[in-house]
Amino acid sequence: MRLRRASIAALGAFTLLLAVPQSASAAIGEFQYTYIGLDGKPHVRLLLDPLSRECITLPEAADPDLSQPAHSPRNRTNTTATVFSDIECDGEFYALRPLVGRGNADMKFRSVVFS
After folding, report:
1. Is 18 domain-assigned?
2. In a domain, 77, yes or no
3. pLDDT digit string (tens) for 40-64?
4. Is the residue at 24 inside a domain?
5. Can you list the positions of beta strands (E) in the chain?
6. Which residue range(s) make up the domain with 103?
7. Residue 104: CATH number of its domain
8. How many CA atoms lie within 13 A of 70 on its CB side?
9. Which residues form the signal peptide (predicted)?
10. Model confidence at 82: pLDDT above 80
11. Domain presence at residue 22
12. What total of structural domains would you count in the chain?
């Protein structure tokens, strides 16, 4: 009888553990990219410790009618960064290795996700 109660208590504790929301994980480090501003000049932007497994559409490159895609990414985070040619992580993509991944001015993208 005691073994049954202990088993039920352990199962209940395990179920509660699964129900507790997990904290959002983040890539540690910075992701750098260049975009052309409304003034026609290049600007550099950093994403610091971006959330993992969440698509990030770059605000400076989000509108295909008004803005140019970002370029020259530098992945200095501890996870792989995958850049996409379209918003909402759609279109052609390219993976950048953790810490050392980079692309040149020909690598155009509008969104990124960290895995």
Report:
1. no
2. yes
3. 999 999 999 999 999 999 999 998 8
4. no
5. 29-36, 42-48, 56-57, 71-77, 81-86, 90-96, 101-102, 111-114
6. 29-114
7. 2.60.20.10
8. 27
9. 1-26
10. yes
11. no
12. 1
Tokens at 23, concatenated: 């904290």
Question: What burial letters (b/e) apply to 76-98, b meaning 16+ CB within 10 Å?
Answer: bbebbbbbbbbbebeeeeeebeb
Judge whether 81 and 25 are in contact, CB under 8 Å.
no
DSSP tally for the chain: helices H, then strands E: 1, 8
CA distance linking residue 76 with residue 107, whole number of Å: 17
Residue pair 27/46 in contact by the 8 Å Cβ criterion:
no
- Band the pLDDT of 25: cuts 50, 70, 90: confident
| Residues 97, 78 contacting (CB under 8 angstroms) | no
Structure tokens at 44: 């550099």
pLDDT for 2 equals 53
Provide mean pLDDT across the span 74-103.
Answer: 97
